[in-house]
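so i finally got all the pieces together for this one. its two components total, 678 residues if u count the protein bits. some of the lines might not be protein, just check the labels. i wanna see the whole assembly predicted at once instead of chain by chain like last time, that was a mess tbh
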Amino acid sequence: MPVAIQCRDLRKTYDGKVEAVCGLNLEIEIGECFGLLGPNGAGKTTTIEILEGLLEPTSGKVTILGHDWQTNARELREWLGISLQETRLSEKLTVRETIELFSSFYRQPRSSDDVLTDLQLNEKADAWVGKLSGGQRQRLAVATALVGNPKVLFLDEPTTGLDPQSRRQLWDIIRAFQRNGGTVLLTTHYMDEAERLCDRLAIIDHGQLIAEGTPADLIDRLGGHHVVEFSVSGNSDGAKLDAWRALPGVDSVRHDDGLVCLNVREPHRTIPALLDAVHNQGSQLLHLTTRQASLEDVFVRLTGRHLRED
Amino acid sequence: MTVSQQSPPTDHLIPARPMRRNGRWAGFTHLLIARMKELKREPEVIFWVFIFPLLLALGLGIAFRNKPANVTSIAILAGPGADRAMSLLEPRKSSIHAEVLDQSFALQSFRLGKYDLVVEPDGNGGFRYRYDPSRPESVLSRAEVDDALQTAAGRKDPLPTTAVTSTEPGSRYIDFLIPGLLGMNLMNSGMWGIGFALVDMRQRKLLKRFVATPMLRSDFLMALTSSRLVLMIIEVALLLGFGVLVFHMRVLGSLLTILLLGAIGAIAFGGLGLLTASRAQKIESVSGLINLVMMPMWIFSGVFFSYERFPAIVHPLIRALPLTALNDALRATILQGASLASQSGRLLVLVLWGGISFVLALRWFRWT
């Protein structure tokens, strides 16, 4: 498959000190929905803005659809649709006027009516931007990115701060764009968004790529699709973790917020053994749940931190 | 609402054939239209750009209007001799308004400027004038009252003289004021309309969003400048129209010359606004900067009073300020009908300010 977005050894240092991105390699294929996942301050926005040609990298090479920003900026701008994090569009223009304004910048834009329909903004077409809800504003931001009829769509935290329904609406819009052959690069710190929307993911922390692959791959690599979380009476210090790791079918063990978390391949073998072990210790089980492993578990496993530690 | 389950119509998300093609000037035109719409929908803009200067002109025009027949108000201290002074001044009561008052009240009112002169009978049939030599109307009042008293007391003038009065439109305070207000308004709206607007858009990340599209940056700056020119025409028409209709001002210069001058002024201050806005990230910091740049010109550039009142040694500096050049050129064309060519020196000052600011601004300007 041809490559839509490629970067090699991307680095960005602010003021000669702060390393926001340190040596990132990415390759995103045409037609893919690719997610940059990471906590706040991981370097996601810096990375996406370098790829969008809005920031100069300190070093490294970026290629978009086979072209680079130094020689082909004007063409690339025609091909990309971009929604930045927190752009405040003019409040006293209407939704339609805003879309028309953005469409006037492109050589061959889509019709504003089509875009209004696709983004379900028809009802609000003549409302001032200042009167829109958060979800409507975000859809308008995506509309201004889609009106240029782009081949690649860049979305920086498109659903941050939105209610669940607005998020799903945006997901539908992104999927529809992708179904028609578009390539999507988005950043998010929502696990569920990354899992549902993205074909492939790069998990970024402190400006570095710490894992890359399909959501299922990443969870696989964690070893064990299931997570068993429990707590027992009495002390549960670090030494005991080894005892839990020795249980049958356990891949890894960690402490998390007073609970013991086991990554488990076969819960039907592990859980009876766990119950026996607790009984033999003479302690009591205070809490026990099992669930499917998620990207959150991958992230915690890789970094020792949760994604959203505010 | 059932939207969560329903997929939007997607078949034409990427149409096989684009719906339309944009020409070279589509971006510029839309940017200009959008800017004009935004301004029109902003009541504050309408007030500060259009209404405020008219209110200022109206207020100052009324306060400093020429009194119909130069009446001077004087106080005569109560006591022996006061009645004599009143009767001596009686023949001139159309130009001298006299009141008899007790000493403390008269002196206090004189200090506050209610009376131009205090006449104190000296008790021996003569009078003592108390006046303020730093107030022109006080000096005039003393001469006028002295003349009236001496004539009424029987002085014979050796030389017969007569006088006729002449008050031409063009020499009144309002005639001086309107071109100055026009210049000041062009400065204010240029600095705020360009400088503030740009930093506001930068702070909202709208500039960054725009440069993420194929929009030509030069189109954007041209559209912003053009919106200033459209406003400039309205500003000139309103202020001059107001002066003509309300104060019967006479506009001697050609309207085209005045508009050209206005355009050069608007663009020069637009350049200055662009420069002040080239780096600032927050509207608070650019507001301070704009006021800092404009403050000296409010004071020195002869908006409300002639800069001739400042020591002659600083006049060359004052004339090098862009607002001084604009005000002087506007006064010369509006009040004296001067041609554009005769104002070339002042135009050069404006063009240099605007041009140098513009070049520096483009070098430093931050879109993100």
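Chain B touches chain A at residues 1, 3-4, 6-10, 12-15, 18-22, 26-27, 29-31, 34, 37-38, 41-42, 204-206, 208-215, 368 (CB under 8 Å).
Residues 72-152 of chain B form a domain with the abc type-2 transporter like fold fold (CATH 3.40.1710.10).
anyway lmk what u think
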